């Protein structure tokens, strides 16, 4: 039988690698399409994808929370992504889908698959580790680097390799998750049962969503302040990934309050000095991403038993901040 610590490392590791691959597959598919269509169409594709990938996560989060057999969510996500890859291939191999319907079909299946996977992975990470903030940071971190890899190295070879890896890892996860040796290691969402009033929960979650919007805006300011080239794109993805991962460990060993004060103070200093050098921008990007597991952890505490919904709300909150930073 797997030891509990080994079980946590194994399952969080698989979920984190899947996160890296899923985000890499989505952006790789979109960038392959970008070489085939004009800018107006591309904007429509990216808008459709982002709406379905992020703004639907509160809805798919509710679906995950009420699902008794969560393995079907993962299978649905993989199936949706597989269909999207097949459609991308058809767009280039035939003339049947070289129109708006074909593009929106690709963006839709990518967005739906991405949305289902993220809330599934967020919920599973909470359940398997009792809302361990280090595990949360690790799971959410890898997607940033996956995006960078997909942007820089997008190709048909990479797309098919990623899809094959997703299918194999998903099957491995499902095989392990239903094994009798691992069933006894399942955990609850939290080792402390806290009760809150509905008003406290409402305003607490709303405050976290506003913080996530602000974080998305500030993160965009740091990342858009540098000249983009393949090396910088990879560096930005790596820094964002390491920041999210480090945030959980800082909170674990410094305490949630002390670590949060350190993060916020560092971000403020970097904002004030961000015009001085690229080093300040990278440090600021690292520190602002350190706060991501903090908001996710607190949302899970407030919405105990509805962790999919909590994950979805915070994911949807990223879009307004991202749009503002882009504008």
Structural class: mainly alpha
List the quaternary state of the chains.
single chain
The overall pLDDT, averaged over residues, is 87
Shape: globular
Work out the number of β strands: 0
Order of helices and strands: HHHHHHHHHHHHHHH
Global Rg: 19 Å
Proportion of helical residues: over 70%
Compute the separation of the termini in Å.
Answer: 53 Å
The parts where pLDDT drops under 50 for at least 5 residues are 180-191
Helical stretch tally: 15
Largest sheet: number of strands, sense, barrel closure: none
Structure description:
The structure is a single chain. Mean pLDDT is 87; it is low at 180-191. The chain is globular. The protein is built from 15 helices and no strands. The chain is 82% helix and 0% strand. The protein is an all-alpha fold and 327 residues long. It starts with a helix and ends with a helix.
Summarize the structure.
The chain is 82% helix and 0% strand.
Distinctive features:
327 residues; mainly alpha; 15 helices; 82% helix
Layout: helices, strands, pairs:
Layout: H1 4-34, H2 39-55, H3 57-65, H4 71-93, H5 100-129, H6 133-153, H7 156-177, H8 180-183, H9 198-223, H10 230-254, H11 256-273, H12 278-290, H13 292-302, H14 307-316, H15 318-326
Helix pairs in contact: 1-4, 1-5, 1-6, 1-7, 2-5, 3-5, 3-14, 4-5, 4-7, 5-6, 5-14, 6-10, 6-13, 9-12, 9-13, 9-14, 9-15, 10-11, 10-12, 11-12, 13-14
């Amino acid at each position: 039988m797997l030891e509990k610590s080994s079980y946590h490392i194994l399952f969080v590791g698989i979920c984190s690698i899947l996160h890296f691959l899923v985000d890499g597959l989505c952006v790789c598919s979109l960038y392959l399409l970008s070489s085939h269509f004009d800018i107006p169409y591309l904007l429509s594709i990216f808008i459709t994808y982002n709406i379905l990938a992020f703004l639907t996560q509160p809805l798919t989060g509710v679906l995950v929370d009420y699902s008794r057999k969560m393995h079907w969510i993962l299978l649905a996500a993989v199936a949706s992504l597989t269909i999207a890859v097949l459609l991308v291939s058809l767009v280039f191999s035939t003339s049947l889908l070289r129109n708006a319907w074909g593009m929106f079909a690709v963006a839709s299946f990518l967005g739906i698959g991405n949305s289902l996977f993220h809330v599934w992975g967020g919920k599973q990470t909470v359940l398997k580790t009792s809302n361990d903030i280090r595990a949360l940071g690790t799971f959410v971190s890898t997607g940033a680097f996956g995006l960078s890899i997909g942007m820089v190295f997008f190709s048909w070879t990479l797309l098919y390799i990623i899809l094959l890896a997703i299918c194999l890892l998903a099957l491995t996860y499902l095989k392990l998750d239903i094994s009798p040796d691992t069933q006894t290691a399942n955990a609850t969402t939290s080792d402390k049962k806290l009760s809150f009033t509905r008003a406290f929960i409402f305003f607490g979650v709303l405050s976290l969503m506003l913080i996530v919007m602000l974080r998305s805006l500030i993160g965009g300011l740091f990342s858009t302040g540098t000249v983009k080239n393949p090396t910088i794109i990879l560096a930005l993805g790596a820094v964002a990934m390491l920041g999210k991962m480090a945030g959980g460990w800082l909170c674990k060993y410094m305490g949630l309050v002390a670590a949060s004060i350190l993060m916020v103070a560092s971000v403020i200093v970097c904002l004030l000095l961000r015009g001085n050098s690229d080093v300040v921008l990278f440090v600021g990007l690292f520190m602002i991403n350190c706060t991501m597991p903090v908001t996710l952890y607190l949302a899970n505490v407030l919405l105990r038993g509805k962790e999919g919904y909590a994950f979805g709300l915070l994911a949807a909150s990223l879009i307004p901040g991202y749009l503002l930073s882009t504008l």
